[in-house]
Amino acid sequence: MANPKKAIYYPKSESDVPPFYDNAKQKLVAIYAAKYGIDAAVMTNIQNHNTQIPLKIAKAENDRQTSQSSTSKKNLELSNGRKDLLWVFNKIEGEPNFEEQDAEDLGMRVSKPPIDFLNAKPVIAQITVLSDKIIFDWLKGEMHGVLIDSSYDGINFSKLDKDSKSPFEDTRKNKVVNVAEARYFKFRYIYNDAPVGEYTDVIKVVCDIY
Known about the structure:
Layout: H1 17-35, H2 40-63, H3 69-94, H4 100-106, E1 124-129, E2 134-138, E3 145-151, E4 158-163, E5 168-170, E6 181-191, E7 194-196, E8 203-207
Antiparallel strand pairs: 1-2, 2-5, 3-4, 3-6, 6-7, 6-8
Helix pairs in contact: 1-2, 2-3
């Protein structure tokens, strides 16, 4: 019987659609159309989409700079192809003889790789130094936050803060007014409120926050 907790996968990237669609079409023709009662008219649509999708993508790319028409046709073909194949997938999933291994074979299921808690290392996408703060844009991914350690000499670090939503902002005033100040930072991921993975390399920022 169907498992409503498992999502049906369909590629989001246009370049991933042709091989995904071709695999599903071939498996449907060979095994699953008969097994799950997909009628001939539906399979004709699937086979037509399988032929036309790569052709329309290629044509759209060739005509991209001179014509919007082929792009519209390509988008329509992708949309209709997605709708028709997902209809087939949903019908298969609802059949009494449905087997999960068939869904995997058709490409309906995609498992996420496990999080690498041992080697995970925060990525600082951008650092912006303003007159009143330093802004660190960091990539969260599947982590729950980051720890931020700070130092004034790049050697002796202490905990500064933790952040659960990017960006992190350091608004501390300089120790001496009108004197530029070097600050050093290290970031480490948090998962379930526990530190995981590795610290970033030491990040040096010179600021004037008065």
